[in-house]
Specification:
Elements (H helix, E strand, L loop, with lengths): L15 E7 L7 H11 L2 E6 L6 H6 L4 E6 L8 H13 L5 E4 L4 E3 L1 H11 L6 E8 L6 E3 L11 E6 L27 E10 L6 H14 L8 H6 L7 E3 L5
Parallel strand pairs: 1-2, 1-4, 2-3, 6-9
Antiparallel strand pairs: 4-8, 5-9, 6-8, 7-10
Length: about 240
């Protein structure tokens, strides 16, 4: 019997696999993220980066979590290795399409509805979305010179091509979430939106996050020192979110 997968690019029947790296996310947004993902993806693959809470058990309570690996020691300070580990685990499942999701990201309803149409085609191999950084809560996003990722496109959905060369830049922090090699393949830029709640936290938590960034990257080698400083802005420019149903 042949083990041939069939055509590299299928126009129907594609499975969608969400991939995540998590660390001490219990009691935050992870449960809600997994509930939402379970509505519109087929499988979920997770690397738990040495959590010390019950993050792993929470993940395994969801039927669609097909693979979970817990690292005994955290790769937090070698992020490219963490990305690589998650990628290798994900592709070991022989996936069709991979959706890279953080433990505090939510796809808008219109984006969820479009997912099948985005993957059941043979024209492009990746899809980008508009990512919005919510700030101080879940009603407003931040928009200024340092916080404007939503004006650009972020590649989070990719077709897996088994014999393609994949690589991540060897960076300690701020590593692209998917292999850079996708940039040479044909892609599709959508206006569909993703809500990022990583900054939807209290002023005290913002200060702690600021301190952590400076500790990890005191010279701004992996990111921008100006952006780190802007975390402490007392009156950031916020825009009210309008959900597109």
């Amino acid at each position: 019997m042949s083990s041939h997968r069939g055509p590299l690019r299928k126009t129907s029947g594609n499975r969608l696999t969400a991939i995540m790296q998590v660390r001490n996310e219990a009691g935050r947004y992870l449960e809600q993220v997994l509930e939402e993902l379970s509505e519109f993806v087929d499988d979920i693959v997770i690397v738990d980066d040495g959590s010390t809470d019950h993050t792993a058990q929470l993940c395994l309570s969801f039927a669609k979590v097909k693979k979970l690996v817990t690292l005994q020691s955290s790769l937090f300070n070698r992020e490219w290795e963490l990305r690589q580990t998650l990628w290798e685990l994900a592709v070991s499942t022989n996936p069709d399409w991979l959706l890279s999701v953080d433990a505090d990201e939510f796809y808008e309803e219109s984006a969820k509805r479009e997912m099948r149409r985005l993957i059941d085609q043979d024209v492009y191999d990746w899809v980008s979305f508009r990512l919005f950084d919510f700030w101080g809560g879940t009603t407003h996003y931040r928009e200024d010179e340092h916080w404007n990722i939503h004006t650009k496109h972020t590649r989070t959905l990719v077709r897996y091509l088994p014999n393609f060369h994949y690589f991540f830049p060897k960076m300690d922090h701020h590593v692209p979430r998917l292999p850079l090699s996708y940039s040479v393949l044909p892609g599709f830029l959508t206006e569909l939106r993703v809500k990022h709640y990583g900054w939807a936290i209290s002023p005290e938590e913002l200060r702690r996050k600021y301190s952590r960034y400076l500790e990890l990257d005191p010279e701004g080698r992996w990111g921008s020192l100006e952006q780190y400083e802007s975390i402490l802005d007392e009156q950031p420019h916020l825009v009210e979110w309008q959900e597109e149903l």
